[in-house]
Amino acid sequence: MIKNEKGVTLVALTIVVIIILIITGMLLYSTMDSIHIKNLTSMQNDISNLKDKVSAYYTKYGEIPAQTEYPDITNLENAGIIGANDIGRFLVLELKKIDGLTLNYGKDYEKYKVNDYENLADLTDIYIINETSHNIFYVKGIKVTENNESKMFHTDYTQGDQETVILKELENNIE
Q: How many Å is the maximal CA-CA distance in the chain?
């Protein structure tokens, strides 16, 4: 008597494994994008919190909580995010002067605070502020890759201060 054994063929099993690998690859790619977006959102939240705290500090004391000039803003210039109003010096934010602040980034401030560095430009995981515009920048930046194109973000805007510049020009024309 001949038995008819039924089971999974090697071809069917191979096809199932290939489909599972394709789905896994798509999920990993999608997850990487969401991690980049989460990192960018964290930096933007940091900057938003810093703006609120710096504004309150400025209102109370009449000055920004920063004194030491950050020596190298080349990466910000190369990214094209320094606006027309970002003139003057870029200063390291003195986070110890700001109360009730929790940040996701800016860990190099701890080294800055205790002078644990040889060159200030080596501290890139740090927030700096423009003394004139009060715009805040994250020196290290956050890299986001979308559609095989990578972009670096250093602040919560991408086109400099164009809106502010336009408003300022309109104000001058009204007078």
A: 106
Q: What is the DSSP string of 136-163?
A: EEESS-EEEEETTEEEEE-SS-SSTTHH
**Mean pLDDT, contiguous 10-residue spans, the chain (175 residues):** 71 90 81 78 92 93 93 87 88 90 90 90 93 92 80 72 41 47
**CA distances (Å), 126 to each of 54, 79, 129, in order?**
15, 17, 10
Can you read off the two tokens belonging to residue 64?
A: 């920004």
Cβ-based neighbours of 50, under 8 Å, separated by 6 or more? 93, 98, 101, 103, 127, 129, 136
Instruction: Return the bridge partners of 24, or none.
Output: none
Query: Which tokens hold the place of 102?
Result: 């929790």
Q: Token pair for residue 146?
A: 């979308």
Strand partners, 145: 150
CA dist 55 and 51 (Å) reads: 6
Tell the residue number behind the tokens 């609120």, with chain if given. 52
Q: Give the domain ranges of the chain.
A: 10-174
**Bridge partners, residue 150, by sequence:** 145
Token pair of 63 as six digits: 């000055």
Task: Tokens 């200063």: give the residue.
Answer: 91
Model confidence pTM above 0.85: no
Q: How far apart are CA 56 and CA 156, in angstroms?
A: 19
Q: How far apart are CA 37 and CA 43, in angstroms?
A: 10
